[in-house]
Amino acid sequence: MSAVVTAPEHTSSERRSQPAPRPRSRRRRRRTGADWATLAVAVLVGLLVAVPFLLILVNSFKSPAEYSSEGPLSLPSSLYVDGIVAFWERVDFPEKLWNSVLISGSVAVLAVLLSVLNAFALGIGRVKGRTGIVLLILLANMLPQEVLLYPLYFMFKEVGLYNTVWSVIIIFTVIQSAFGTYLLASVYGTFPKEVLEAAALDGASRWQILWRVVLPISRPTLSVLAIFFFIWTWNEFLIPLTFLVSNETQTVPVAITVLQGDRLMDVTTTSASALLGLLPTLVFFLLFQRTLTRGITAGAVK
Amino acid sequence: MTTAPAPPGTARPPAAPRGGRAGAATGLIPGLRSATYWPYLVPGLVLLTVIVLVPLVWNVYLTFTDYRGIRPPEWVGLENWVELAGDTTFWTSFRNSVAMVVAMVVVPTALGLVLAAMLFDLIGRKFGGRVASFLRATYYLPQILPSVVAAIVIGWILRPQDGALNTVLGAVGLGSLQANWLGDPATALPSIMVVLVWVQIGYPVVIFMAALQRVDPELYEAAELDGAGWFHRFRAITVAMIRPEIFVVVLTCAIAALKVFGPVYALTGGGPGTSTVVPAYYAYSEFFQSQQVGYGATIATALTVVIAALAVVFVTVQARLEKREETR
């Protein structure tokens, strides 16, 4: 939708107009009491949203004894890191982190590539029946994953990929690229025709046009897609839970959840595990927030 | 997201005038017939077939079998479907789905509209874009969490003896309101709903704010000068301008609400009793706890049918509304 129009323009003129055109018309306006009240409400909502994060942070650094005597709201009296260390060691956190990074990173790259190939044929090539094809592909995104679970379980067992990260990578490449295809197909549908004509006149082949013209020009949209794919795949649960059954292949969310059933886990370790579970995505989000806001119009369609 | 390809004219406006129907046989690159692009679709369609279409058909086949996961599936005809129709747990799970729709669609969309309008129309204009985007990022935070981790965090806040919520209630003298939030059938479902609202709220805000960038801020200022109050501007400008995005958000969130699994798995496991069971969780537990694969497949297929029907109804309604808009 809005992405359709904006994405291709994000190229050369963009550098100058950063940060993204924000409506900050005429700053110095009269601020009435009602305006301040609105701000107060908005900040209050923000606080409500943030409170659980603050609680995790505070309690991750408390000892179980301090937690039971002082309760969940007090600030830690000293920096206690045993909870974090205990969780880190019990689940072999670096291993889980690597699994998650490997899976999400591969899916981000592969799903973007697959989306580009699909969208090139659908948006720029305009193959016959493209609306039907896009709808068919979107099915992958709409289906409840339970429908695919058992048959996929068989198929991957048959080819020996069950309980390897590759099974999950392949599945999510297809599922995420469904959304990517949908988005990119409409972006490419409005690709500036003059650019393509110029390239064709210079004698570029289809393949060269895809790699040398279409890909570079749509890069902002592609990077937004890749970031979304990374975060969405990182957060996936059902399929990793059922396909990655051994300890060595588990992802971060699965490891954290599986450990919940573990009676040995005290309350501060739970908090520490939540902290470790949210930190990677938080860091990733902060690192790429600029890219995201720059291409936010592309993300707007999700 | 499923909606946009359907209504022609909204999705790719500049494309329509160029060539129209006659141009269907050529792509955007001059001199290349559209049929020559098929090779680019091969990897995508092959993978789609293997990973989605074949399993989907296979799953439908399994609904007509009695299958425990060990011996080969045994054909039983419509038995699973008949059982499903009379299964109270199944109907409970769909009733709970309605609660999930309230928590993930109705409340976040309504709140999201108000918050986005507040941030864009008032806070952005009067206090600067930075304040607005900072608040927007805060609202969005729960969205980047793995939903199961979010559920664990909240589950821990809701613990009956030493959880933060009961502690706060006790501290401010509202001890009588303390409850075993997730352990009591009366409060378990509402608790999950609150968690989902918390997780979900940032998504519509971000989408709606992005959509509002299409709107010229002057429009608001002009309306304000004309004496239009906040609510009037909200209805006449905000909601009217971003209707396509509202449709997209409602549809995608409704599908997500029907498919919800992670939070239920992590928070309550469908309990206590069946008070928080949802179709996706019910299918999962039939697969892996009861080893009733055929029956689990039937639940999952029924859920698919509901989602597909919802999507079709939605796309049709949206297309009709847009057509009416155009002819006006």
From TrEMBL, chain A:
Extract the InterPro entries matched here.
MetI-like (IPR000515), MetI-like_sf (IPR035906)
Q: Which UniProt keywords apply?
A: Cell membrane, Membrane, Transmembrane, Transmembrane helix, Transport
> Which Gene3D superfamilies does this UniProt record tie to the protein?
MetI-like
Where's it mainly located? Answer: membrane
Q: Name one Pfam family in it.
A: BPD_transp_1
Residues of the region (Disordered) are: 1-30
- Give the stretches traversing the membrane: 36-58, 97-121, 133-153, 165-188, 209-234, 267-288
PROSITE patterns recorded: ABC_TM1
- Which subcellular locations apply to this protein? Cell membrane
Q: Respond yes or no to whether keyword Membrane is given for this record.
A: yes
Query: Is the keyword Protein biosynthesis in the record?
Result: no
ABC transmembrane type-1 domain mapped to chain residues: 97-288
Membrane topology recorded in Swiss-Prot or TrEMBL = Multi-pass membrane protein
Family listed: Belongs to the binding-protein-dependent transport system permease family.
> PANTHER family attached here?
ABC TRANSPORTER PERMEASE PROTEIN MG189-RELATED-RELATED (PTHR43744), SN-GLYCEROL-3-PHOSPHATE TRANSPORT SYSTEM PERMEASE PROTEIN UGPE (PTHR43744:SF8)
Q: What is this protein called?
A: Carbohydrate ABC transporter permease
- Organism name: Aquipuribacter nitratireducens
From TrEMBL, chain B:
Q: Which CDD domains match?
A: TM_PBP2
Q: Which InterPro entries match?
A: ABC_transporter_permease, MalF_N, MetI-like, MetI-like_sf
| Stretches with biased composition (Pro residues) | 1-16
Q: Residue ranges of region Disordered?
A: 1-21
Protein's UniProt keywords contain Phosphoprotein? no
Report the Gene3D superfamilies cross-referenced here.
Answer: MalF N-terminal region-like (1.20.58.370), MetI-like (1.10.3720.10)
Tell me where it mainly resides: membrane
Keyword tags: Cell membrane, Membrane, Transmembrane, Transmembrane helix, Transport
The record, for SUPFAM superfamilies, names: MalF N-terminal region-like, MetI-like
| Membrane topology label | Multi-pass membrane protein
Record's keyword annotation contains Transport = yes
Compartment list: Cell membrane
Extract the Pfam families matched here: BPD_transp_1
- Per UniProt, residues of the ABC transmembrane type-1 domain are 94-316
Q: Which residues cross the membrane?
A: 37-61, 98-120, 140-158, 165-182, 188-212, 246-266, 293-317
Query: What family, per the record?
Result: Belongs to the binding-protein-dependent transport system permease family.
* Protein name as catalogued: Carbohydrate ABC transporter permease
